[in-house]
Every structure is written in C-alpha cells, then in structure tokens.
Amino acid sequence: MPSLRWKTKALAIALFGLSFSMSLAASLSNFDRITQLPGQPQVGFQHYSGYVTVDEKKQRALFYYFVEAELDPSSKPLVLWLNGGPGCSSFGVGALSENGPFRPNGEVLVRNEYSWNREANMLYLETPIGVGFSYSTVSSSYEAVNDKITARDNLVFLNRWFRKFPQYRNRSLFITGESYAGHYIPQLAELMVQFNKKEKLFNLKGMALGNPVLEFVTDFNSRAEFFWSHGLISDSTYKVFTSTCNYSRYVSEYYRGSLSPICSRVMNLVTRETSRFVDKYDVTLDVCIPSVLSQSSVLNPQQVTETIDVCVEDETVNYLNRRDVQNALHARLVGLNRWLVCSNILDYELLDLEIPTIPIVGRLIKAGIPVLVYSGDQDSVIPLTGSRTLVHGLAEELGLNTTVPYRVWFAGMQVGGWTQVYGNMLSFSTIRGASHEAPFSQPERSLVLFKAFLEGRPLPEAF
C-alpha cells in the first residue's frame, strides 16, 4: 500500500495543480477586467470585457461585456443577453441602451436605476462574427452566415468563456434577448441540451424571449391587424393587406428579389397611410428617437429608402467610437473604421427568417426548460397578437393546461401588463406601454418581469 508520506505528496501535487489552474483562470479574467470606463461613476461591482476566440484558424473572435451583480454576485444567476437583427449589437443596444448598468450621456456614463444586474450577473454577447467589436481576420467569415453557424459559435463561446470564469460553470444559467434572438436563443439552447448529454456543463434554467421572431407567417401577418386596430391604416387597406398581399408574402418576395407589382402597390399604400413619421417599433413614439431603437431593417424592409429624422444624438455610437473607451474595453476595430449599432459587413442568410423556431421551443419545454415569451404592447414589428397566438397554440399542442388565468400584473403601483401561464413551464406576458425594446421604453416594468422570471414566481397580482 502507498505510504502516508506518498499520499500526502500526491495530494499536495493535486492541490497545487488545482490552485495553478484556478489562478490561471483568475489571471485570464483579470486581463479582461475593466478598471474604469471613461466618464463612469463609481460602482461597487466588477465588470469585464474582451474576446473569446471561437475559430483559431480564421481568427474569429466574439466580443463580450460581462457585469457582475450589484450585490452578492456569488449567489446570483448568470444571464446571457442577445440582441437581434440579425446583426445588431447586444452591448451597444442591450447593455448601453436597455438593461445594462450605464447609459451614455454626452461625455459621461450615468447609472441605470433599473439595470438587470440588480438581480443577476449579466453577460452581453456581440454575435455573430462581424457585429459590434466581434471580428475575423478573414473577410469570407462574414459571408453566408446563418442560424446554424451562429448557434455553433455561441456554444463554443460559452464553453470557452467558462474557462475564463470557472466560478460560473455550475451557476444557474438563463438566456434572454429580443427580436431575432427568437431564432438565436432556442437554437443555442437546443445545442446546450445536446452537449449536456455528453458532458454536463450548462445549468440551463430558462429562456425569456422578448418580441421574438418565432414563426414567420404568424408573426409578420399579425402586423396588419395591429396597424388597423391602432388606427394606422384604413379599412380598405386592411382588407387588401390581409387578402391581396400580406406582409409575409411581401417580405418573402422582397428578399428573393422577385417583388410582384401587386405587393409593391399594397406596400406603397400601407407605407403612405402608416406614415414615415411613426416609429414602427413603438407606434406611440414621436419621430425624434435614438437610432439604437431600430434592431435592424431586416424585420422591416423598405422598397424605398426612408430618411428617418433622428433629432436625438446617438450617444452610444459616439461613446463607443472614442479611442479611450475602446482601450478601456480592451476592444478593437478590425476591418472597420467605425463601431456601428448594426453591422454593415455581415452577409446573413436572411431566408433563415422563414424557418420556424417555435417547434424548438416546444422541444425545450419537453426537456424541462421553462420559457417566457413577453411582448412590448406598442410594437408593430413583432406584435403581441402573433406571439400570444403562437404561445397558446404551443400550449395546446403540448397539452399544457392554464395554471395562471389571463390577468393583469403590477409594477410601481400601476398595471405593468397582462400575463397567462401554462403548466408552470410556458408563460406569456405583455409589458404595458413598451416598445420592441421593452427595457428601454419601460425599464421599471421590465425589471419586475425579469425578477419574477428568474425566481420562478408569479408576476405581482397587486401593488
């Protein structure tokens, strides 16, 4: 039998190896730690940013921004946030305009009172390659990018990110996001579930999808009813928009370069009546809006280029194009002169838009992953009516009975929205008065929804 001395020596070697690997991981994350961003107020939490290489051969690297929870981060879950597009920045839109700890204001950053890092450790990922500060040294990497490539890259990113931050490996993990993230998130989550069958790495606890693209025809064709019910189009236009050429047909023809004369006429009629002075992402907003509100033109293609009157300076773009800010973020522009909200070098397979992801959501629920679909109720791009129809249909298909009947919920002594829960696994909620980017337009209500989602609790029934 081995001597006690040998055992002690072996244990010491093992502990040294463990200590070395932990210190190596700590040094990797410390390299990405942000000392202080220019104009940043003093805070008590740590934040990090940098790159994770997902393909060494082509030097394809994804940029991330990670902000630890304000209080007791070791007890809080990890949340991955993805913006849509495809091709828009989760850092610039999500973190700096929606639910991150800071918002640019001139030369400085100001605190966001309703930052989601009050409840979780927030990880913002600029995906796919070519978005924001994410880059490749091979320009062909930006060509023919599709949902499968994006999902695979995101999986590799998370796997390798955990090497930098091993303390989060077994943490409860939630994935959230909006718009085209209705494609990104379910496809990534399904890969994570498959990966866990070989090696248990991802402690996935749930998904929250905001105004998501889940099923092309239902989501897009709900736009006509939204326009009509909000008084944006006439009765006669509503009739032709639902019978002669609906919106899904128009988008399908547009992206195939085969726009028919009849669809062209119908869309000209719709565009004229809805007016270019109404923001389609929030029909209650006046025309003077920050340009970051537009996830992308992909979900809202125009036959004729419209000039949008942006009378509010785009603070985010100005801030992230400062050299001192980029240095503080450990970020660099590769093959670009300027940081952009949405990528102009990414050639995404736009017809992936037509592939439904609602069946994937169903498979994930069957695998035990709870799902929340939420809708800002002033968004005409992906209206709440389409999302509600899809969620209800999925509940029926899965045999999930209603566990929380359709009712109001409250935030800040006001009605925050409406909600319904099916089988304690699938939820639908609206955020009252919110746009396509709900945390931007209704930050307090969005935070209440987010907190309830993380805790698996019903939304407040009273104030």
Tell me about the largest β-sheet: 10 strands, mixed
How do the strands line up in the largest sheet?
A: 1-2-6-3-7-8-9-12-11-10
| Beta-strand content bin | 15-25%
Terminal CA distance:
68 Å
**Class of the largest domain in CATH?**
Alpha Beta
CATH superfamily of the largest domain: Alpha/Beta hydrolase fold, catalytic domain
CATH topology of the largest domain: Rossmann fold
Low-confidence runs (pLDDT<50, min 5 residues)?
Answer: 18-22, 304-313
Family: Belongs to the peptidase S10 family.
Function: Probable carboxypeptidase.
Pfam families: Peptidase_S10
Subcellular location: Secreted
Folded structure, characterized:
The chain has a ten-stranded mixed β-sheet with strand order 1-2-6-3-7-8-9-12-11-10, with helices on both faces. A two-stranded antiparallel ribbon has the order 4-5. It folds into three domains: about 1-30; about 45-215 and about 350-455, 3-Layer(aba) Sandwich (Rossmann fold); about 215-310, Rossmann fold (3-Layer(aba) Sandwich). The protein has helices spanning about 5-30, 90-100, 145-165, 180-200, 215-230, 235-245, 245-255, 260-275, 315-320, 325-330, 360-365, 385-400, 440, 445-455; strands at about 45-55, 60-65, 80, 100-105, 110, 120-125, 175-180, 205-210, 370-375, 400-410, 415-420, 425-430. It is an alpha/beta fold. α3 crosses α4 (about 180-200), α4 packs parallel to α11 and α5 (about 215-230) runs antiparallel to α6 (about 235-245). The chain has 14 helices and twelve strands. It is found in: Secreted. Belongs to the peptidase S10 family. GO terms for molecular function: serine-type carboxypeptidase activity. Its EC number is 3.4.16.-.
